[in-house]
Amino acid sequence: MKLKNDGFALAILFCASLLCASTFCGSMAHAQVTGSGTKDAIPLWTGTTTLGRSKMAQVDGNLGINTKTPGAQLDVESSSTTAPAIIGSSFATTGSGSGVLGLSSSPAGTAVAGLATASTGTAIGGFFQTSSSTGTALLGIATATTGSAIGIFGQTSTPGSDAILGSQLATTGFGGGVNGLTASESGGAGVDGEATATTGGASGFFGSTKSPNGIVALFRAQTGGDLIIGQFGSSSPVKVFRVDSTGKGFFDGGTQTGGADFAESVAVAKEFARHEPGDLLIVDTAGRRRLKLSAEPYSTLVAGIYSTKPGVLAMAHKMDETAADEIPLAIVGIVPCKVSAENGAIRPGDLLVSSSTPGHAMKGTDRARMLGAVVGKALEPLSEGKGTIQVLVTLQ
């Protein structure tokens, strides 16, 4: 009887074991993960127990998004016509957090490279923007002290696009669209612009401003040295001009200006008649370094002609100082001059002296009175009346 009861107990225990096993297996079957996979693709949970293929792939240690063959540690590709492939945003209102940070320790490496490969349109290799009144739209710093490291490199193949565009939208402050810094002591450049095309009219550097009081280019020497140096040649460039920190210019090839005379800024007396370009002026004996209109024939006080457009204007003032009550007096060169035919018709080559008509010159005929009274030679004729002709200023 005991054996029969023991057998029954064993049977009950066996059945209970089968029931537990069945329940466990059912639970495992319910929690099983299903779905199809793709080689090298990082899976995406499409449900609580199902997996699908994501946009990310990992091949040979490279991670790609929207590409099965990533070519870098992180390769993000996009076919969107409006949305960017990558957005880096730093929302902190304090500190120095960066939306995107690119670092390169290689002497010839590039911290950040932007390439616009489209051959049409207005694609931009790199676009940077700041709304801060003192912020910098783009700051590139190459900290390597040797080699040819580049803080920022932008490249585009589109004929009308910019490799790098820095846009400063703030209407106040001193923020810059592009700010380049270099710590090199052996000829480094904060901003380096080079036009490699051998034909056409490409510019190594182009600056533009739309503000009436804006500055296209500002050069500042903080510890002496030169403001600007111009060189010619590629393999062994030769210095052809420079402007030092005092503002003095040195030009090996000479200079060319739009005017045709050398003028000096000189004060004029306050007279009833208003002074005008072309007026003949004499020394004002009642003043100091001051002129006035000529008003008598053969005056030996003749000083020069009020220049219409001086090629070179010299003055005793600093560049930003206001020269009150001063006019440009042409003392050498060719300028328009008011003349009168009161002493006869004027022909080219005639020596001119002051006349009785205020501010006008006339032909000199009295040789005994002309020493020290001649202002110049006529280059154009005047047959009668009054007019304005070109005169070669040659005081004698």
Cα Rg: 42 Å
What is the succession of H and E elements? HEEEEEEEEEEEEEEEEEEEEEEE
Looking at how many chains there are and whether they match, the oligomeric state comes to single chain
Distance between the termini: 158 Å
| Percent range for β-strand residues | 25-35%
Count the helices. How many?
1
The chain-level mean pLDDT equals 82
CATH A-level architecture of the domain at 261-394: Beta Barrel
**If strands are numbered along the chain, what order do they take across the biggest sheet?**
14-16-15-17-19
The coarse silhouette is rod-shaped
**Biggest β-sheet, characterized?**
5 strands, mixed, barrel
The CATH class of the domain at 261-394? Mainly Beta
How many β-strands, per DSSP? 23
CATH topology of the domain at 261-394: Virus Head Decoration Protein, Chain: A
The parts where pLDDT drops under 50 for at least 5 residues are 18-29
- Indicate the structural class: mainly beta
Helix content: under 10%
Name of the CATH homologous superfamily of the domain at 261-394? Head decoration protein D
